[in-house]
Specification:
single chain; about 325 residues; alpha/beta; Helicase, Ruva Protein, domain 3; Rossmann fold; 2 domains; five-stranded parallel β-sheet; two-stranded antiparallel ribbon; elongated; disordered C terminus; DNA replication; cell division; ATP-binding; nucleotide-binding
């Protein structure tokens, strides 16, 4: 790999802007959603009411990013307009797996409540949280809530019931499942989940995908690395496939990796199309850079070389 070539591709500190975890200060095409979410959080906290807020939409449509920005907006508003009232806390946690115990442990720790990571029941965690909220109003956001429904549905439904029926506590759920409410089997829980108090993140259209990816490209790469016509190709494909911006960012990262390995400074339309095609056939959940390898491009050679045996059937 040519280190000089790498410097010519990326701007200084540019890599972070195509990281899927990066949260822009002023996200494009989600202003309305961020405003709605922040108003709801503020209403919960000021009025000290229990309840729920549901955020749903397909993967990569900006749900997590928008909530994080809205949480900052809400905190800034509360600090300015009610500086003396500090007896509230906003918590953002992610259900990373199907087991509810790590999630409950993380919630407790976010509340500065000492809780063992194992050996106590779901009810014990609830009791620990309940002790804390006697003095502090808490709004909890659980991202990727879908994960809990695959193995611990009963406890997940109990969590919804408790977090929406307890004084001084409110809940935001972020999910990819558009019909999440219809999957709730317990009638008590269904009635607790305010489906009218929700927001649907619609898929990004081609123009929106282009605006977002163009901004990230300008922040990440030096000029002329990806021309507009090439970025338009990527944007249209992302929109057709459901508007998953994270996929677009991953493809941009693969473009940079290919350019580094091939010692080139510009991604052509042909290279972009090939990278998109190879990305599309990767197994779900695998990181592309760990599943595919690059070799120096020359006439007639493929861009990708497989080194994961599980991918040999793809015919690279």
């Amino acid at each position: 790999m040519n280190s000089k070539n790498k410097k010519q591709i990326y701007k200084q500190d540019g890599r972070k802007y195509i990281d899927t975890e990066y949260v822009p200060q002023d996200p494009k095409h989600r202003e309305k959603e961020i405003t709605q979410i922040s108003k709801q959080i503020i209403e919960f906290i000021i009025n000290r009411v229990s309840g729920s807020f549901l955020i749903y939409g397909n993967s990569g449509t900006g749900k997590t990013m928008s909530f994080k920005v809205a949480m900052s907006v809400a905190q800034a508003y509360l600090s300015k307009n009610d500086p003396d009232r500090k007896d509230h806390k906003m918590i953002f946690v992610t259900a990373k797996g199907t087991d509810i115990t790590p999630l409950m442990t993380e919630i407790c720790r976010s509340l500065d409540v000492k809780a063992p990571s194992r050996g106590i029941s779901f009810k014990d965690y609830i009791n620990l949280i309940n002790e804390k909220i006697q003095k502090t109003y808490v709004h909890i956001c659980i991202d990727e809530f879908d994960n809990l429904l695959s193995r611990t549905r009963e406890k997940a439904e109990d969590l919804i019931y408790y977090f929406t029926r307890t004084e001084r506590l409110s809940l935001t759920i972020i999910t990819n499942r558009i019909n999440l409410a219809k999957e709730i089997q317990d009638a008590r829980v269904f009635s607790s989940l305010n489906t009218l108090n929700s927001i649907n993140f619609r898929d990004y259209d081609p123009a929106q995908c282009y605006d977002i990816l163009k901004e990230r490209t300008n922040m990440t790469f030096n000029p002329n690395f990806i021309y507009d016509n090439v970025l338009q190709t990527l944007s249209k494909h992302i929109a057709i496939e459901g508007g998953d911006i994270r996929k677009g960012l991953s493809v941009l990262g693969l473009c940079a990796k290919y350019a580094e390995e091939s010692n080139i400074l510009t991604i052509t339309p042909e290279i972009m199309t090939d990278i998109i095609e190879k990305y599309d056939i990767l197994k779900d959940g695998e990181k592309p850079e760990k599943t595919i390898n690059f070799r120096k491009a020359d006439s007639g050679s493929d861009i990708f070389t497989p080194f994961n045996k599980s991918m040999q059937h793809t015919g690279f």
